[in-house]
Amino acid sequence: MAVDYDAFRAVLREAKHIIVLAGAGLSAASGIPTFRGSGGLWRTFDAIKLASPEAFADNPSRVWQFYHYRREVARAAVPNAAHKAIALLSTSPEELARVAPCAQTFRLITQNVDNLSIRALPSSTPISAYPIEMHGNIFRVMCTECDLVALNFDSPICQGIAGTEALFKDGEPEPQIELEDLPRCQECGALLRPGVVWFGEAVEHLDEINEMVEELCDLILVVGTSSTVMPAGMFADMVKDHDGKVAVFNIEKTWADDEVDFEFVGPCEETLPRALDVVDRLVPSGC
Ligand code: BJW
Ligand code: ZN
């Protein structure tokens, strides 16, 4: 196991099919709390228990307030240097050819729902270069009755929920919002739910992901994820199974030395742009 930037870049130069697998740590520097591990954990409630079909069936008012709060946090956040590094290599053939001249593909698979990796892309980006959002997107809504699925960036998502984000932030008990005052479907009037993947639900784009991870990928960068949630937690092993290389970027040591080829322990917003040799190529925030 090496932490050597030069050795990693030598592997990067030979790689043909590169995957970045991202988790909550990718967005930590943007102010989005992670679920587990060090740094910015959700403190006032059990986020994992709220991110489930059972919690939504039991108390849609509480779950919608949780997601409304997180939508507001995500809206206010801006992509950090790690999002930008990934976006640059996903969209610029010239930059990709400079750092990874053999690369035929470079694709982000993200478990994050915060939309920040999409916001880091230039506006002209074709959909084919967009990240694969395997756990959905917090700005998507799905009807619980009909087949409506839509993007919704409204703030607040409905008047009945307006202002509750301040209570969540302060850890105050949340109000009970009546079902008819929660987000409703514009087509059939039924209750909407957040367009994210909860435990026990099928992750999205799994066939496409499996094809990349099981067969093609010869280098996977595992960025800011605890790798405790399946199936994403298995992807590194699946790449190793066909002799691909694994590089981990995490603020904590998360893997045993003999399990991965490179482990960069530190904030990914610093280690990832450096490892990918794009530090001087990133557009600063606000430009
Ligand atoms: C930094 C940093 C910095 C901090 N720089 N690093 C096989 C075996 C066992 C169980 C299963 C299995 N297959 C499926 C299961 C069950 C289940 C599961 O995995 N359970 C486990 C708990 C064991 N999986 C599922 O149910 C999945 N569904 C499925 O497989 O269905 C099969 C199916 C097929 C067909 C029909 C039906 C079903 C679905 C999983 C959905 C996960 N959903 C959530 C919520 C999404 C919506 C929301 O955001 O609210 O996804 S849970 C939550 O965890 C969220 C995250 O995407 C996910 C992963 O978390 P992540 O990203 O790793 O974050 P953290 O917080 O855990 O880690 C952050 C890391 O960053 C830490 O390591 C820090 O150190 C680090 N860090 N700052 C670098 N600056
Ligand atoms: Zn509907």
Helical amount among residues, as a percent range? 25-40%
State the secondary-structure class.
alpha/beta
* Net shape: elongated
Number of helices: 11
Summarize model confidence as the mean pLDDT. 93
Strand order, largest beta sheet: 3-2-1-7-8-9
Number of strands: 9
SSE string, helices as H and strands as E: HEHHHHHEHEEEHEHEHEEH
Condensed summary:
By secondary structure, the protein is α/β, with parallel strands linked by helices.
Secondary structure: elements and pairs:
Elements: H1 5-14, E1 17-22, H2 47-50, H3 53-58, H4 60-76, H5 81-91, H6 93-99, E2 105-110, H7 116-119, E3 132-133, E4 136-143, E5 149-151, H8 164-170, E6 192-196, H9 206-216, E7 219-223, H10 235-241, E8 245-250, E9 262-265, H11 268-275
Bound molecules: ligand BJW and zinc ion (ZN).
Ligand BJW binds at residues 23-25, 28-29, 34-39, 48, 51, 111, 113, 135, 196-203, 224-226, 228-231, 249-252, 254, 267-269.
How would you describe this protein?
There is one protein chain. The protein is α/β, with parallel strands linked by helices and 287 residues long. Helices cover 32% and strands 16% of the residues. The chain has eleven helices and nine strands. It has helices at 5-14, 47-50, 53-58, 60-76, 81-91, 93-99, 116-119, 164-170, 206-216, 235-241, 268-275, and strands at residues 17-22, 105-110, 132-133, 136-143, 149-151, 192-196, 219-223, 245-250, 262-265. The radius of gyration is 19 Å and the shape is elongated. Bound molecules: ligand BJW and zinc ion. Ligand BJW is lined by residues 23-25, 28-29, 34-39, 48, 51, 111, 113, 135, 196-203, 224-226, 228-231, 249-252, 254, 267-269.
